[in-house]
Amino acid sequence: MNHINLLNEFVDKFGEGGDIRGYFTPGRVNLIGEYTDFNGGYVFPCGLTMGTYMVARKRADRKLYMYSMNFEKKGVVQSSLDEFVNGLEKNWTMYPKGVMWAFEEKGYPLTYGYDFLVYGNIPNGSGLSSSASLEVLTGIMLKDMNGTKDIDSRNGIDNSDSNDDIHGISLQDIALIGQFAENKYVGVNCGIMDQFAVAMAKKDYAIFLDTNNLSYKYVPLKLGKYKIVIISSNKKRSLADSKYNERRSECEQALALLQTRKKVSCLCDLTVADFNEIQDVIADDILLARAKHVIYENERTKNAVTALEINDIVEFGKLMNESHRSLRDDFEVTGVELDLLVQEAQKCEGVVGSRMTGAGFGGCTVSIVRDDCIDAFIEQVGKTYEEEIGYSADFYVAGVGDGAHKIDIDGVNYVE
Ligand code: ADP
Ligand code: MG
């Protein structure tokens, strides 16, 4: 993509004038803690510098005019705040409309519609949460357009004296509203990690999040001479169609059995030691393997954070490798493309760890690679992948960026 000026693009589509504002929300990559989020466990994502941009202007009526530069052919999609068709839309606009619907459902009625333009540089459908990015982006736009104060609670700004209900919504609330929209409007049964991560991310930190109670801490990503390299397999996965819901149901079945032996509310309430003591209650090998992945992965995630805190990158990498093995053999959500990318990555010089990230069945891997080995890594893994799979993978040396925020669009913000 060449350099683009978002304001010019907006004016080109919707005309000049009025109060035009800009917003950004990143994508995210989960470093470790996969399939723990709907089991009440830990996850460890960070925000990316890749993300989704929105330029918006409030209208005087209830209409919505929506344009995505990533879906040029769809042109400007027209709708209104009175046309929510929950669960039936199959257009990119179901994400922003779902969030508007969710605002209303949660008791924040919207009065006016919007003209808005969207542009994103996160590969779609690759497990880097472009959908959550678009949802949270819509949420911060709605909040900002319906209030007068700074949206950014990370700056410690107190919004409590506002009379406007929407104005009192926090970034965490927006994350929850985004998840609600994705669950109920879009129809994808995702956990809270994605929306939370893209809302709350912080430059050069990862978020150690307990999905059970949303307590979290920022952990500095001090990788020294190493970088995070994301590889998109370019094998498309669709979360709604995938085995994601099947895995959820298997986890629920395993939990119900374990609950007959121990009083817990989710799989991740169990430690590895607890699990080993009572696992014989699960007779079915598949359910047993699913539960084992979740409980061990939760423990690995805690250990990975400790490893990072004491600068033990090698240990962090080992835990990533073990995470992949477990996702492949016990949880069975990888597939030939992801397995090949990880296997080849792990063979390369300067790689401390590599694993699939996101929901699996395609999408991306994440690897920790030493600076001076990155070129050779890309060359070697890229070549083998193309030879064996028949199409190429895309490589991104990840920048770790801030969560959802307002941007200045007065002609100075160019996006590559
Ligand atoms: P992921 O969240 O892993 O990227 P999903 O399938 O959950 O994959 O979400 C991808 C969908 O989100 C796209 O097909 C599109 O409908 C929507 N989307 C994401 N980014 C944009 C964008 N920049 N413009 C319009 N729609 C987008
Ligand atoms: Mg998604």
TrEMBL record:
ATP binds at residues 68, 125-131. The keyword Hydrolase does not apply. Residues 95-148 form the GHMP kinase N-terminal domain. The active site is at 194 (proton acceptor). Residues 8-58 form the Galactokinase N-terminal domain. One of its GO terms (cellular component) is cytosol. This is Galactokinase.
